[in-house]
Amino acid sequence: MEYRGYIHIMSRKSGYDNKIIVNNRIVYKYSADMINKYKLLSNKIKFFWSIRSKDRYKVITDIVETISNGNIVIDSKNTYREVNNNEFTIIRGDISHFFDSVDKSKLYRIIFSNGTFSNSEEKLLKEIFFDRTITGIPQGNPISSILSEIYLKNFDQYMTLNYKYLLYERFVDDFVLILPYSVKNDELIIIKNQIKSFLNGINLKISEKKFYMVTDNDLKLNSGSFNFLGYNISIKNIEDKYYVCLKISTSKIKKYKDRIYKAFYEYNSTEKETEDFVRLKIKIENILVGVITVDKYGKKERLGIPFGYSLINDKDNIKDIYNLFMHLCYKSNLKKDEFKLLIKIAKNFKRMLDENYIYIINYLKMPIKDLKNICHDMNVKNISNKTKTEIIQRLFKKVYRK
């Protein structure tokens, strides 16, 4: 279950306001003004270094296409891609405690030897590199993802030049390497040691628990699968042919169930006023249906299982989420009208499971009157002169008590 706690209040010299712990990771909180400044600087560095944003959807699609051919089969609910007949090995790896482990002195030299910055931009960077209260790259800062891409640029080059690969993909600190042959255990040890040696040279370590391989035979014999970016990827036998099967990983299912349980627990610990129920309802919607909103930077954001896992073609384990939600609805002694509103969410979620139907709540297209009514129920104050984006941001801040 997610744990959040404040562990540090800034000194005046720091660029951040405080640190919090989220899921055992330190996240740095910045003021809106500092976020905007770092966002502008991030865009400049991104352009200068020609860094392309990673698309999680495309990464998973590329993996599926690499291990499959063009043939597909459609059953009553889902579409599957047939696995090709060629040998392949999937090596899955993870960089341990990546953000905290980045050598800031190395990164500083890389950044300043390949870019020109104004005095104000240089000051922003130095507030990260020279602040001893910041360990590695600060998660929560808009520039962190760009800095991580720069730091791992040589690692990507090493992986693509050193191995004869079908596909190499890295998403922040997770990576997958697909080789066009069956790797033996002794060769895997060699590959692992080579990768470990390179990472050690830049002060990083591989996660021993998350480094493993699966071959095409492992997958076809139903004895193997691998997790990547929240998906579990395996092989399904349909009429003596093998097809790629995608479902939500067990750990992610657990996190969704924990979030639902926590939302109901918090609601049942209140006086069950209107604000308390609306908070519960919005939190559940943000998990079970497709929600279009804006993030703290004003960028459009898609929430919910239907958007986050649009590629799944095996939904059996999602039924556990539905069953938990229904159990908590009946157990929570809701008012009749409140119960009906939550059951409507459940029905739309069930339709997604049965019919690939997606119910969408789009805050960006929501009439301003409806949005203000929700804010009224949530006791969101001082929104009369705010833009729609600002109103949405204030609403979500109140929902999650940020």
From TrEMBL:
* Occurrences of domain Reverse transcriptase (ranges): 1-233
What SUPFAM superfamilies would the database entry show?
A: DNA/RNA polymerases
Any single Pfam family the record assigns to this protein: RVT_1
Q: Which PROSITE patterns match?
A: RT_POL
Superkingdom of origin organism: Bacteria
What the entry lists under PANTHER family is as follows: NUCLEAR INTRON MATURASE 1, MITOCHONDRIAL-RELATED, PROTEIN YKFC
Name of the protein in its database record? Maturase protein
Species source reads: Lentilactobacillus senioris DSM 24302 = JCM 17472
